[in-house]
Design a protein that fits this description.
With 348 residues, this protein is mainly alpha-helical. It is built from 20 helices and no strands. The protein has a domain of 114 residues: Tetratricopeptide repeat domain (Serine Threonine Protein Phosphatase 5, Tetratricopeptide repeat). The chain is 74% helix and 0% strand. The protein is globular and about 60 Å long. The N terminus is likely disordered. InterPro entries: TPR-like_helical_dom_sf, TPR_rpt, Ycf3.
Length: 348
């Protein structure tokens, strides 16, 4: 899926946001319809709904915002930038929550479009108006890493951590961002500092920190304890820790145990499939990826779809893989790995 900076923190796209601005009454029917189509990844259908909303003279700012989000889904980032800029220019001068929402989207579009310098300017503007925005410090730091400005990035990461020192999810995101750009040791210093200073760290948080530090034995010992609390992430990290040691059989049993007791989960199915792939049981891997895809509204549809294609390739069903890959690229046309995979399949 690429670098951590793709994990952009943005406001939701559901009717709740629309209702805060204009109400989900008849005057936003087509906008609501368009946003619902975005959630189902039907971006072309969403754009048609926004065109109809414009014809019905619905809220112009929300139409432009929706078009921007749909354009990002279509990987038309230049167009997305134009739409988010248009939406912001339609402001009445009073800064509202939706303005921050759209600025985050605008910055995300710039970064997707390979314009981290422009994204940084947006985060600068957000922080000038709202210096307590923790997300903006993290995201600006990630953009600064893209620009090769390590010192500024670290200062922003330090600020984000100081504002929310117990947010270990964010700390791990910072570690991953630093590791992606060649500063793994710096990221590990952040993680080690938590182990050294937080004496009340629970088994789950200590386990996953040990995992990212590469101390897999300590990781799975802590996560075995955390597993009893039943959280899906505890099982995910526990399985990953065992897989990292090469014990794919036990990792698979961890995931299968969760599924049998707790029910379907897309990420668990994906990790189970990866373990089965490592064990060269490609049929079981395929079944796991397909089971994950059956879960409606899951956020891993792209990953599961690609892994399904790879499983078919290993099963030497190149015709099925090619058909699925063609459909995949219609939904995710900027996936360079999939494009290279298509070139490979064309030779089979």
């Amino acid at each position: 899926m690429g670098k951590t900076h793709k994990k952009i923190v943005m406001a939701g796209i559901c009717c709740l946001m629309i209702s805060m601005l204009t109400g989900c009454g008849n005057d936003t029917t087509k906008i609501t319809e368009g946003m619902q189509l975005v959630e189902t990844l039907d971006y072309q259908g969403a754009l048609t709904a926004f065109d109809e909303a414009e014809a019905q003279k619905e809220n112009s700012r929300l139409i432009a915002r929706g078009r921007g989000i749909a354009s990002m889904g279509l990987t038309e980032y230049d167009q997305a930038v134009q739409y988010f800029t248009e939406a912001l220019e339609l402001s009445d001068g009073w800064v509202q929550n939706v303005d921050y929402d759209m600025n985050y989207y605008l910055a995300a579009a710039y970064r997707k479009n390979g314009q981290p310098a422009e994204a940084k300017k947006v985060y600068d503007a957000i922080l000038e108006l709202k210096p307590e925005e923790k997300d903006a410090y993290f995201l600006r730091g990630s953009a600064e890493l893209e620009l090769g400005d390590y010192e500024s990035a670290k200062a922003d990461f330090d600020k984000a951590i100081s504002m929310d020192p117990k947010n270990y999810d964010r700390l791990i995101e910072i570690y991953e961002a630093l590791a992606d750009y060649g500063y793994r040791e710096v990221g590990q210093e952040y993680l080690q500092n938590v182990l050294n200073t937080d004496k009340k760290l629970d088994a789950y948080d200590s386990g996953r920190i040990y995992y990212y530090l590469g101390d897999y034995q300590k990781a799975y010992l802590a996560l075995e304890e955390a597993k009893g609390k039943g959280g899906v992430d505890s099982y995910l990290y526990l399985g990953k820790a065992y897989a990292a040691t090469g014990d794919y059989n036990y990792a698979s049993s961890v995931y299968s145990n969760y599924l049998s007791k707790q029910g379907p989960d897309a990420e668990i199915y994906n990790q189970l499939g990866l373990c089965e792939m490592a064990k060269k049981d490609y049929q079981k891997a395929l079944e796991a990826f397909q089971a994950g895809k059956q879960i409606e509204g899951n956020s891993l549809m792209q990953t599961l779809s690609f892994n399904e294609i790879v499983a078919y390739e290993y099963l030497q069903d190149y015709q099925k893989a090619a058909v699925l890959l063609k459909a995949y690229l219609q939904n995710y046309p900027d996936d360079q790995t999939a494009i290279r995979e298509q070139q490979f399949l064309s030779t089979r």
